[in-house]
Fold Aminotransferase.
Amino acid sequence: MSRLSESMKHELKQIQPSSILKFNQEISQIPDMVKLTIGEPDFNTPDHVKQAAIRSIENNESHYTDSRGTDGLRKAASKFLHDKYNVTYDPETQILVTTGATEGIFSSLTAMLNPGDTVIIPTPIFPLYIPDTLLNGAKPIFLDTSDNGFILSPEKLQATIEANKDTVKAVVLNFPSNPTGVTYSRSDLQAIADVIKQYDIFVLSDEIYSELTYGERHVSMGELLPEQTILLNGVSKSHAMTGWRIGLVCGPVDVITEIGKVHQFAITSATANAQAAAEEAFKNGPDDGVAMRKIYQQRRDLLLAGLKEAGFECASPKGAFYLFAKIPANLNQDSVAFCYELAKEAKVAVIPGASFGAGGEGYVRISYAASTEDLKKAVSRIQKFVDAH
């Protein structure tokens, strides 16, 4: 007798465990490894945020909250998003607090998709959107952006929508981008918005790295196309709170209502003291990310210079904390094989570009959410590895 849902078995067979986590786990067994693999801030959560969580525990705030999130957190998040990105969301009806942006992505796609729908996913991209699409019986349509500086062109988007307009339900945007560090300017986004507004489709806009931009202010798709945008954000990257698992989903009232149903049945509500911490982060630490951003930029510049000297070309990183580096032509162009060689011989761990979809092969993703000391050590080891090959 089958132990799995018959309707789900087909979808599950299409999905494999995360290749990023698998690779990271395997190379972690190698002694003296410099790991530039996982996208997690190496900073501590700000003290005032931690104290807010402690007070919440001491005040016995240990019960279920409103499934949408506490009033205080939703109001603080609404003000933060408005002040930072000129987006307007009613905290009562248009903001949902999720257990990280990860759950927000899953709940949003689950509420949105029907079997047979299609979702346009520009690549290279953080791969989570792909299994979530497949689990809901929908089909991803991949658009390789590597020939356009890793930016989705409005022309390619429009042609793809037109070719699939009977099935397209949504377009995914992830910016600043994981894995490339590339982000969209206001004019880039406006051109995409002008295409999307011609169709009855959504844009799932994952802007979790919005506070980590270098040289230009982040522009949100929620400002340009509010009636069709499902905006994802949170405190994981802006306040070094990945383990607290607090994300936000924002959008039109009717859409958030339906996403809220999936969210409620899946998790009931986010953890009470983590919500208290996030409220403090948004309310009294809106610029906590600024100091981190300055250090990230210094690390980015250090890594860029070192990789350039070693013969790597990098996409122009203007946000997040990743470099997407092209493997030099004289080295193994299979990104998985290259990364294993680098890990075993040079004891530097980076993620194969192939993990991020079409356009990623021949590249590696390098996280500079690591200490300056580790980055200097990594650059020295990479340079020696390249010289030896």
